[in-house]
Design goal:
Distance between the termini: 11 Å
CATH architecture of the largest domain: 4-Layer Sandwich
Strand content: 15-25%
Bound molecules: fructose -6-phosphate
Radius of gyration: 25 Å
CATH superfamily of the largest domain: Aminohydrolase, N-terminal nucleophile (Ntn) domain
Number of helices: 16
Strand order of the largest sheet: 3-2-4-1-10-9-11-15
Largest sheet: 8 strands, antiparallel
Structural class: alpha/beta
Shape: globular
CATH topology of the largest domain: Glutamine Phosphoribosylpyrophosphate, subunit 1, domain 1
Length: 577
């Protein structure tokens, strides 16, 4: 979602902020802006644009202190007025904000003499700080956050202060420590070009950045010591490396990601939990659904895999004898974080399967297993998904005490799928349709959901994933020669059931793309096109069947000229509910 970058130092801020905003583009946004404290007049100068960050290039502002922001619209449309940074009435204070201020209307009402120019919740923060300011910017920010309800990562500057004041509650923000310069950003990808030394702020902490110092305070203004972390990746991870899109690069990185994740050491996990609860969103939830099948099959422990947004409001029956697992690429997803906090309140032991080191969910779980996917830039999650699956397989092994045959070779199997399939030919046949169905059973029912999600989010084709056994209970009514079905039908224990479903679709003129096991000739009788995976242990098929579906979604989106890495309306890290 929204992205923040701030700079204070000895260099011109504008280019650094612009570059930072470009690095944050992958998070999803619809307008952008930069504020710089002018080096001569000390006035705060603004430049804003609706649409791409690139538009900010046209005008350069001079100064060595500044804030930048990419906005993903929540309160009010993507307009220049609603774009950040926001100013107070005097124009002396500039604020950028991520999160949602829940009591913004009450605050707005109470600030009677102030003139508001936007529809946003964020603008009220600038005016609130104006009201509370009497010469000490840090104190004005502390006094103001005491009046706020909701979530925020806030960065504030004032024309008369050579400092940036930062505050956090619920929305991630990280400080980059430089040499005679300091930065702040909503994630490390915007900082890594300048420094690898970072400090992650926790909720209700305030930081004051000057050119040559960073001080952290609690909400009462008492100084606190925070540990620096050195991040272990560099800019090459955030480049396309010759690929047309990050998504394609990330799909192709999966064999390495799987190998790296298989080397992760798991924490010691008790084997006698009564229940395991998995909560996650979107693709990570699909990984959780596969995890349910695998862990239940192997370890015979009941597993409940729910979307975090449902779990958190379901008054779940979870307690100290249960294990709660949060799965999240970003480690910042608001619903998953809330589900985790609820599970903790109920006394459950908590475990995170997280990609981004030191993210909020990772820090709040009792134990964390880091997937080794590396930074995922494409908004559509691919390599994070397969790495989450790998951790779930490893967990199933640990909980059952038995190894899963073939897991050690699965990276090579994925490589084979990436090399062998003729996805472009298939994509060419179908890229103009308006609707798609995806069906699968058992372990590959979640693959059907994931295949449909990938296709809809990047190509904007309406796609639904179903448990194949549900077809007769409604969705088969949709089948015509204009609504193709992707049938995930590897040679497994439910193969014959899948074949029956495919025959029923064929009998109604439906076109079928099957994902099947190499050597399966029979399938060609029912499928118009077949995408093959190698013959592996049934338990491992979800790791392979998803690969052609990722590629199919990618190719179709590319043929439809869609913005693959930044699909409309979507954000990479969903930090608001
Ligand atoms: C889909 C996708 C989303 C995320 C979901 C959870 O391709 O990327 O559905 O999986 O928003 O995000 P994380 O894993 O960061 O919690």
């Amino acid at each position: 979602m929204c992205g923040i970058i701030g700079y204070i130092g000895h260099k011109q801020a504008y280019d650094i902020l612009l570059e930072g905003l470009k690095r944050l583009e992958y998070r999803g946004y619809d307008s952008a802006g930069i504020a710089v404290q002018d080096s001569k007049s000390h006035k705060i100068e603004l430049n804003k644009a609706v649409g791409h960050v690139e538009k900010l290039k046209k005008k350069e502002l001079k100064g060595t202190i500044g804030l930048g922001h990419t906005r993903w619209a929540t309160h009010g449309k993507p307009t220049l007025e609603n774009a950040h940074p926001h100013l107070d009435c005097s124009g002396d204070i500039a604020v950028v904000h991520n999160g949602i201020i829940e009591n913004f209307l009450e605050i707005k009402d109470s600030l009677k003499n102030h003139k508001f120019v936007s529809d946003t919740d964020s603008e009220v923060v600038a005016h609130l700080i104006e009201k509370n300011y009497s010469g000490d910017l840090r104190q004005a920010v502390i006094d103001s956050i005491n009046e706020l309800y909701g979530t925020y990562a806030l960065c504030v500057m004032h024309k008369d202060h050579d400092e940036i004041v930062v505050a956090r509650n619920g929305s991630p923000i990280v400080i980059g420590i430089g040499d005679n310069e300091n930065l702040v950003a909503s994630d490390v990808s915007a900082l890594v070009e300048h420094t690898k030394r970072v400090i992650y702020l926790d909720d209700l902490e305030i930081a004051v950045l000057k050119k040559d110092s960073v001080e952290i305070f609690d909400k009462n203004g008492k100084r606190i010591d925070k540990k620096e972390t050195v991040i272990d990746w560099d800019l090459t991870h955030a480049e396309k490396a010759g690929y047309k899109h990050f998504m394609l690069k990330e799909i192709n990185e999966q064999p390495d990601v799987i190998r790296n994740t298989l080397n992760v050491e798991l924490p010691e996990i008790k084997k006698d939990y009564k229940n395991i609860f998995i909560a996650a969103c979107g693709t990570a939830w699909h990984a959780g659904l596969v995890g349910k099948y695998i862990i239940e099959k192997q370890a015979r422990i009941p597993v409940h895999a729910e979307t975090a947004s449902e779990f958190r409001y379901s008054n779940p029956i979870i307690g100290k004898d249960d294990l709660f697992i949060a799965i999240s690429q970003s480690g910042e997803t608001a619903d998953t974080l809330a589900a985790l906090r609820l599970a903790k309140e109920n006394g459950a032991k908590t475990l995170g399967i997280i990609n981004v080191m030191n993210s909020t969910i990772a820090r709040e779980c009792d134990d964390v297993i880091y997937t080794r996917a590396g930074i995922e830039i494409g908004v559509a999650s691919t390599k994070a998904y397969t790495s989450q699956l790998i951790v779930l397989y490893m967990l199933a092994e640990q909980l059952s005490g038995e190894s899963i045959e073939g897991l050690e070779n699965v990276a090579s199997n994925v490589q084979e799928v990436l090399e062998k399939n003729h996805i472009s030919d298939v994509a060419k046949k179908y890229f103009r349709v308006y609707n798609f169905l995806f069906i699968g059973r058992n372990l590959n029912f979640p693959t059907a959901l994931e295949g449909a999600l990938k296709l809809k989010e990047i190509s904007y084709i309406h796609a639904e994933g179903y448990a194949a056994g549900e077809m007769k209970h409604g969705p088969i009514a949709l089948v015509t020669d204009q609504v193709p079905t992707v049938a995930i039908a590897p040679k497994d224990s439910v193969y014959s059931k899948m074949v029956s479903n495919m025959q029923e679709i064929k009998a109604r003129n439906g076109r079928i793309i099957a994902v099947a096991t190499e050597g399966d000739k029979q399938i060609t009788q029912y499928a118009d096109d077949v995408l093959y995976i190698p013959n592996v242990n049934e338990l491992l098929t979800p790791l392979l069947t998803v690969i052609p579906l990722q590629l199919l979604a990618y190719k179709i989106a590319e043929m439809r000229d869609c913005d693959v890495d930044k699909p409309r309306n979507l954000a990479k890290s969903v930090t608001v509910e």
